[in-house]
Specification:
single chain
């Protein structure tokens, strides 16, 4: 016999996935806005020569982060599809996305990139925690907050992309 207590965390995770996916679908927000090809006035990456072996230049690190973020954005888009066909798969994918967002900085040494990545990680974690809390408390405004937060997160990602476009 399954107790209500043992299924509650799974249902909350499924609910979090549902809120985040609904927020993405309703807002039309992808995590990966397309930046203009011209760097923004605020994107002032400092030249960064190649550091010790394994570090790479700022441009190389930007390329890696951009590739990682594009993969994450693709998976975030898949969340909406999985919600309707495979709820458990959506919950699993949400966990993978959260882990990948948390690991964005693992191969990065450039301080300017690390700062931007930290902002993106904080934004994602806040969205996830807010959605989880909203589900647990029955707060129906959670979708609206997720949409607003996802828009802000998209702006942070666009800022990272614009910064990196200035290093190419």
């Amino acid at each position: 016999m399954t107790s209500q207590r043992s299924t509650a965390p799974g249902l909350r995770s499924a609910g979090v996935a549902l809120v985040l996916a609904a927020g993405l679908l309703v807002s039309g927000c992808g995590l990966l806005p397309t930046p203009s090809p011209t760097p923004s006035a605020t994107a002032e990456p400092a030249p960064s020569p190649s550091g010790p072996a394994g570090e790479g230049s700022q441009a190389e690190q930007c390329a890696q982060v951009t590739t990682d973020v594009q993969g994450i954005a693709t998976d975030v888009g898949r969340l909406g599809e999985l919600i309707t066909t495979d709820l458990l798969g959506a919950v699993g994918l949400l966990g993978q996305i959260t882990e990948r967002v948390g690991n964005l900085q693992t191969r990065i040494t450039d301080p300017a990139l690390l700062e931007r990545i930290g902002e993106i990680q904080s934004g994602w974690n806040a969205i996830y925690e807010d959605a989880q809390s909203a589900i647990a408390s029955g707060d129906t405004s959670g979708i609206e907050r997720a949409m607003t937060s996802l828009t802000a997160l998209g702006e942070q990602v666009a800022s990272l992309q614009e910064f990196c476009a200035g290093t190419a």
